[in-house]
Structures are given as C-alpha cells and as structure tokens.
Design brief:
Belongs to the bacterial ribosomal protein bS16 family. Residues 123-150 form a coiled coil. Keywords: Coiled coil, Ribonucleoprotein, Ribosomal protein. Residues 204-215 have a biased composition (Acidic residues). The protein is an alpha+beta fold. The chain has a domain at 3-94: S16 Ribosomal Protein, Chain: A. Helix content is 70%, strand content 15%. The chain contains four helices and five strands. Strands 4-3-2-1-5 form a five-stranded mixed beta sheet. Helix 1 crosses helix 3 and helix 3 runs antiparallel to helix 4 (96-214). The longest helix has 119 residues, at 96-214. The radius of gyration is 54 Å and the shape is elongated. The termini are far apart.
C-alpha cells in the first residue's frame, strides 16, 4: 500500500484549516486517513504549525511520500532533517548523540529565525500603525484648518454684505434729512427778512426829520 503524507482541508469558507495526515494514496483528499500527524493554520502570520515530528519521521522511514506542501511543512519543522540524520545513524556515519546534537542546534537556529521574523513583523505593524495615526492626525489638522478658513471667508462675506446694505440705505437717509431741514431753513430766512424790513422803512422818516432841523 502506497502512503502519502498530505493535507486534509477543514475550517470555514475563505478561512481554511488543515490537518496533516498519513493516508492511503488511493483515498480521497478529505477522505479516510491512517493517522493524524498535526495541524497547519495559514490564517496567522507566520503560519501556525503543530506537528508530531517523531510520528512523521516514522512514516517517512516506512516509505511514506509527502506532497509538495507537506514536504515544505516537514522541512520547516525539522522532520526531514531528523529523517536524514537517522539515516546517517543507521549507516554508522553518526552516533545517536551526534545526530541529536545536530538536530537540537538546527531547531534552535530555526527558532531564532522564526522569532526574528515575528519581531520584524511586530515592528512593521507598529510602524504602520504609527504612520496611519500620523496620516490621520494630518488629515484632521487639514480639515480643521479648512473649517477655520471657511469660517473666515463666511465672516468676511457677512461684513461685505452689511457694508453694502449700509451704503444702499445712506442716500435715502440723507435725502430724508434734507427734506425735513429745508422748511426750517426757509422759515429762518423769512424771520430774518421780517426783522430787517422795518429798519429799511424808517430810513426816509429820519431823512425828513433831518431836513426840518436844518430849515
């Protein structure tokens, strides 16, 4: 019986979640399997992988062939490295202690790379967040400045409208004042003329009195 190590799809629509299984190569992709070896969640960054390395290596020893995606996952978690080192131990090229030490060092280096990637992603996310906040702040400041400018323009427009209204009403007021003051001025002139008229009439009488005195 030919055995494959492959992924079996689970999860929701557009949010897949996979089981890593050892299954008969003739069975359907999501059909029956021989053993569940772990899980793979691609919805996180980086992807979350939970794998039973010893069981996966045992199936590799028994001739199971991983699919391309499964092979990448086994390589990422060190299962292929352990399978390779176990082959060296069987051939006598390595002792079990040397193989275990090499595998431990490889896993430590891999964990350091994963941690560095996570830290880089965290810093990138924080930088993107700071950039977004800065952009939002600038946008708010621009909106506030635009609102102040619009208020100033509206205030100037109101002042201009008031000045135009005053300018339109001023000639009418002046005309009304002129109309009201004209009769009073005429009356004042008439009174002055009336007061001065008798003096003008008395002048001939004074001249006659002067003539009589001389005679």
């Amino acid at each position: 019986m030919s055995v494959k190590i492959r992924l079996q799809r689970h999860g929701k629509k557009q949010k897949p979640f996979y089981w890593i299984v050892a299954a008969d190569a003739r069975s359907k992709r999501d059909g029956k399997y021989l053993e569940k070896l772990g899980t793979y969640n691609p919805n996180t960054n980086p992807a979350t992988i939970d794998l039973n390395i010893d069981q996966a290596v045992q199936w590799l020893h028994n001739g199971a062939q991983p699919t391309d995606t499964a092979r990448a996952i086994l390589s990422y978690k060190g299962a292929l490295m352990k399978h390779h080192l176990d082959g060296g131990v069987r051939k006598g090229a390595l002792t079990q202690e040397q193989a275990d030490a090499k595998l431990a060092k490889w896993l430590e280096d891999k964990a350091g790379k994963v941690t560095a990637k996570k830290e880089g992603l965290t810093k990138a996310q924080e930088a993107a967040k700071v950039k977004a906040l800065k952009a939002e702040k600038e946008a708010n400041e621009k909106r506030a400045a635009a609102a102040v400018e619009a208020a100033k323009v509206e205030e100037v427009a109101e002042e201009v409208a008031v000045e135009e209204t005053v300018a339109e009403e001023t000639p009418e007021v002046v005309a009304e004042v002129a109309v009201e003051e004209t009769p009073a001025a005429e009356e004042a002139v008439a009174e002055v003329v009336a007061e001065e008229a008798p003096a003008a009439e008395e002048t001939p009488a004074a001249e006659e009195a002067s003539e009589e005195t001389e005679a």
